[in-house]
Amino acid sequence: MCKYFSLPGIKKLAYINANKLPDGLSLIAISSAPVYLSSPSVEIPFTGAPSCVATRSNTNGAGNETVELSFQSLLPLPEDVPVSLLVTDANNRTFLIGTKEKPYPLIESSGDLGSPDGESATTTFTITYKAPKALIPCVYAQ
């Protein structure tokens, strides 16, 4: 059995140093307890319309989620620390992708140099994360 869903319109993206997150967030989310975060974050300016798609599957009684977040940005993401991402949708719901524990979200990027008529150079990011609870609803207070 597989379920597919996507977030309705993303209005804000940010990243958090995964090492600054509390332990066991995935277990808290699986238990349906509220997840509260206050770790400092850095907003990610993006262009175009980002997309966030999640797929839930159940294999031999074990549930798993896979999330794929795609967006274009003019600025790079850090490569020296593991990051988790905060996604705020059009309904003002915030979700966390990634936790303090490994495996971390896989970040792939590809660059576009823009065009001579003045388009900016952008980087397309595709973040993939797989966990028992990969798209964690949270309350974020910065």
Give me the secondary-structure topology.
Elements (H helix, E strand, L loop, with lengths): L1 E5 L3 E8 L7 H6 L5 E2 L4 E2 L3 E13 L2 E12 L9 E7 L4 E4 L8 E7 L9 E10 L3 E6 L2
Parallel strand pairs: 3-11
Antiparallel strand pairs: 1-5, 2-4, 2-7, 5-6, 6-10, 7-8, 8-11, 9-10
Describe the overall structure.
- By secondary structure, the chain is mainly β.
- It has one domain (2-108, 122-140).
- 4% of the residues lie in helices and 54% in strands.
- The chain is built from one helix and eleven strands.
- The chain has one helix at 25-30, and strands spanning 2-6, 10-17, 36-37, 42-43, 47-59, 62-73, 83-89, 94-97, 106-112, 122-131, 135-140.
- The strands form two sheets. It has a six-stranded mixed β-sheet. A five-stranded antiparallel β-sheet has the order 1-5-6-10-9, with no helix packed on it.
- A hairpin with a 4-residue loop joins strand 7 and strand 8 (94-97).
- The longest helix is centred in the first third of the chain and has 6 residues, at 25-30.
- The radius of gyration is 15 Å and the shape is globular.
- The mean pLDDT is 89.
Instruction: Please report the total strand number as a whole number.
Output: 11
Taking strands numbered 1, 2, ... along the chain, how are they ordered across the largest sheet? 3-11-8-7-2-4
- Give the topology string: H per helix, E per strand: EEHEEEEEEEEE
Mean pLDDT: 89
Low-confidence stretches: none
Helix/strand class: mainly beta
| Count of distinct structural domains | 1
Sum up the overall morphology in one term.
globular
Tally of contiguous helical segments: 1
Q: What proportion of the residues form beta strands (DSSP E)? A: over 45%
